[in-house]
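Protein modeling request. Please complete all fields; requests missing the sequence field cannot be processed.
Requester role: graduate student
Desired output: 3D structure, token encoding
Chains: 1
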Amino acid sequence: MTKALHRHLLTAPHGAPGSARARYGAAMALHGEGLLSDAQLEAYREASALDIQDPALVLADRGLAAPDLAPPDPAEILELLLVELDRLLARTGGEGIAEVRAGLAPAFRQSPTPVPVTPNRVLSAHLPAALAAVARDDPALAQILAAAAPHLRWITYDAYDPGLIGPDFPQAHGFATLVGEDAPFAAQDYDLGLFLIAPDTLYRDHAHPAPELYLPLTGPHRWRFAPGAPFHERPAFAPVWNPPLQPHATLTGRTPFLALFAWTAEVNAPAHVIPAPDWALFEPVS
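Delivered output (286 residues):
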């Protein structure tokens, strides 16, 4: 994973805080492996003074070619996504973060196993706008999400009573498990991955035995934790921890909802919808 991580960091979008130092560190590591020349390394050293400095411009100004590095393969991309999501969790405070990271730790001792991938309509329709929103706050995260999404199996959660979950949500969401049963990184009684919901969608009030963390990567979106209660807006990167059987509902905003999700136990126990009197206020008339 180390060489792939260095290649990834070397091409991380410039401008993000700390990106210049990370690029130069990666350049030094790759130079030590004989993959960058002395002159190329010096260009990255010069560019490391400012996060906004594009090293490609420094290389071109010196008449140097960009490093000729093989792009990471799908397994390496999924490993990079694992690193990036753990980095995101490590810098996030709040309830449930420690439990999620503890369940994630064994995956770093594995090599990912490819999973069957099929086209997903929600992904193709709404992921580009979600990634554009993520890139405004964290360009490096958006870069690896874009690279990894085609190598994940995006599916629809189908354990709800169709008569209660409503006609809209099943057609407006998809999720992909990165760590869990039948996932690229194997785990038992643990699920971690990505969740995508179309804009202006009500994910009706529901609950499940699994303790759950949401870490939204886009926002704002609205949340409530009792059926019929008012919704409250929360920004991107504000975590939401749902204890076992805690009712919750999500009303997405104008930007597609993209989040890291994790279930830390009871992952095979199905979720159930909890009726609320005000759903019609938030759903379009069909």
